[in-house]
Amino acid sequence: MPKNTLNRRLSRPLEKFSALNKQHKIAIAGVSTLGAAAIALSAIPGGATTVAGGTPAAKPVAAEQTTQTRDLHATLSSPLTSDKVKLDAIEAKQKAASKQKAADAAKKAAAERKAAESRSAKKAADRSAKRPQMETVAAKTYKNNLDGWIRESLDIMHAKGIPGSYHGLHKNIMRESSGNPRAINGWDINAINGIPSKGLLQVIPPTFATYHVKGTSNDIYDPVANITAAANYAAHRYGSIDNVNSAY
């Protein structure tokens, strides 16, 4: 076979192969272009449009992004807002419970205080009812004379349980001293012994000291003290000053 003919036969498959490769390249390039276009379209929001020359419109994309941002913000903030509302509600409930508790405590304390005051008032009323009512009595006054001295002595005697009467005291005073509180006996046996009788009822100092009534003066010449001590002595020795009709 001639060499040229062989070369032509060998070159035809190569040409076919080369043509096939070109077609494959064109197809692959087309697929790549379509893929890029699809990707570009998928990146454009659904509501976006294109302008002449295939360039996406910028303004609709920005509006769509703003809307999506707001939606995302709302989605993220909604749980936080809900939680804050719940926390505010819990805090308000706790404050209300605390105020109610304080009000209940104050009400209970007031009730207890009122009950205590009522019990105290009742006890005071009971004590007052049980305690005998004491009448206010003005201090008794006596005249500074024989009549006043006898009357004051009688009141003291009665308080101490010493018997005697006004008449019994008066008659013995008149016989012993004639009503002179400074009278003194300088001639009887007592005087001879150095212990003269003194005062309204002529009492010697040892007898006055022994039968002195507490609450009266310690001065033997004091009219009330002298009468009361003498009446006390007479009660112990004679039963009463009323039973004395002579020197004693």
From TrEMBL:
- Give the compositionally biased regions (Basic and acidic residues): 101-133
Where does the Transglycosylase SLT domain start and stop, copy by copy?
173-245
Q: Residue ranges of region Disordered?
A: 99-134
A Pfam family the protein falls into: SLT
Against InterPro entries, the record matches this protein to:
Lysozyme-like_dom_sf, Transglycosylase_SLT_dom_1
The domain of life for this entry's organism is Bacteria
Q: Supply the name of the protein.
A: Lytic transglycosylase
